[in-house]
């Protein structure tokens, strides 16, 4: 059973940066798609960025040019570097992973089987 644990959230001012981490455990073999999603209460979950097993990445429109997804396979950790943060980025951020081959894009959160508990990001103006 894959388990994901996010960290790195917090409160920053507009224009600031944060780096989220997602520690993965329980992998018994090949890793598949992983990604970051966010959600604000009352709104649908939104895809932020994904990275497939071959390194292919996708980004949501709000993340392009400012956020970078990466992974360190040796540390079993997924990262999301967020720069030039805006107040509209305020949300709970979730790390997710697929249990096998699947679509891997920011619109495909339904395809991901494993989810962390989330880490809160708050950006003040």
Strand and helix map with partners:
Elements: E1 3-7, E2 10-13, E3 18-25, E4 34-39, E5 46-51, E6 57-59, E7 67-72, E8 77-82, E9 91-97, E10 114-115, E11 119-124
Parallel strand pairs: 2-11
Antiparallel strand pairs: 1-3, 3-8, 4-5, 4-9, 5-6, 7-8, 9-10, 9-11
The residue fraction in helices comes out at under 10%
Low-confidence stretches: none
| Structural class category | mainly beta
What is the approximate shape?
A: globular
Mean pLDDT across every amino acid position: 95
> What is the β-strand count?
11
Series of H and E elements = EEEEEEEEEEE
> How far is it from the N-terminal to the C-terminal residue, by CA?
40 Å
Beta-strand percentage range: over 45%
Rounded radius of gyration (Å): 13 Å
